[in-house]
Design a protein that fits this description.
This protein is an alpha/beta fold and 254 residues long. It is built from twelve helices and seven strands.
Length: 254
């Protein structure tokens, strides 16, 4: 059983991730969030599925991908999404496939679950928590399927055994003691990776005020995760803050 407040699989989960998304900004945002998380490593970014297959044929990957994120909306039809998933599964054995989508669509959802994908998540639900979502996918039992809250209504309309047993993506952990300004400062600094001077410029405050907000955020996060001992000793506080701010509830959380 996973202990309360322990990151899932820290030190054991090692995901080599491929991101396939024609939206340049979305693709790079996903890459940035995954790069901060030591459990995930982006080994390829592509705008089109064909580019991924070409890279695979040429042996361009330094590490074999074991999880792929695809934007479901890049497929013109649900049938094309099914074909894309089939091609990915044929290309790499035991590959886990996560479909991201801008909105819920019953036909696309059914195509994903019926063709063997492992998750169907709305981008608005995953957001900065994408690395945690991938770790939850990695922990699914064989045949398991993960959906996010925004897909629930469409999933309820469909009769499919995997959907009936699907797990929901956990909600972000709340940090109610943080004021909006402290939350903004720590997200800009630890999640977006801005230097403190740029955070100060963005928030129109003094650098010393930013530093004070960050110190307060660290204290709040430390207090709420007092029993959290799963982080490597060499992790900087900024990196740990990223992990905590982006954290999702895990099995065993109350």
């Amino acid at each position: 059983m996973t202990r309360k407040n322990t990151m899932p699989g820290i030190g054991t989960i090692d995901l080599n991730v491929v991101v396939i998304d024609s939206d340049f900004y979305a693709c790079n945002a996903i890459n940035a969030y995954l790069a901060w998380d030591r459990r995930t490593r982006v080994v390829g970014k592509f705008a089109q599925l064909d580019e991924f297959h070409a890279a695979l044929r040429s042996g361009s990957f330094k590490a074999q991908p074991n999880i792929v994120i695809i934007d479901a909306s890049d497929s013109a039809t649900a049938g094309h999404l099914r074909e894309a998933i089939d091609q990915l599964q044929a290309a790499i054995a035991e590959l886990r496939i996560v479909c991201l989508a801008p909105f819920a669509d019953a036909e696309y959802l059914y195509a994903a679950v019926d063709s063997g994908a492992n998750a169907y998540l709305l981008k608005a639900d995953a957001r900065i928590h994408i690395a945690w979502a991938l770790c939850h996918v990695a922990l699914l039992a064989e045949g398991g399927f993960l959906i996010s809250a925004g897909v629930a209504d469409e999933a309820a309309k469909l009769r499919h055994e995997r959907l009936q047993k699907a797990r929901f993506l956990a909600q972000p952990r709340p940090y109610r003691n943080m004021t909006p300004r402290i939350r903004q400062a720590i997200e800009l600094y630890a999640v977006e990776g801005m230097p403190q001077k740029l955070v100060a410029h963005e928030m129109d405050i003094e650098v010393e005020t930013v530093r004070d907000y960050i110190r307060q955020a660290y204290d709040i996060l430390d207090a709420l995760h007092a029993d959290d001992t799963a982080y490597p000793l060499d992790m900087h506080r900024q990196e740990i803050a990223f992990m905590r701010i982006t954290a999702l509830a895990i099995p065993g959380d109350s």
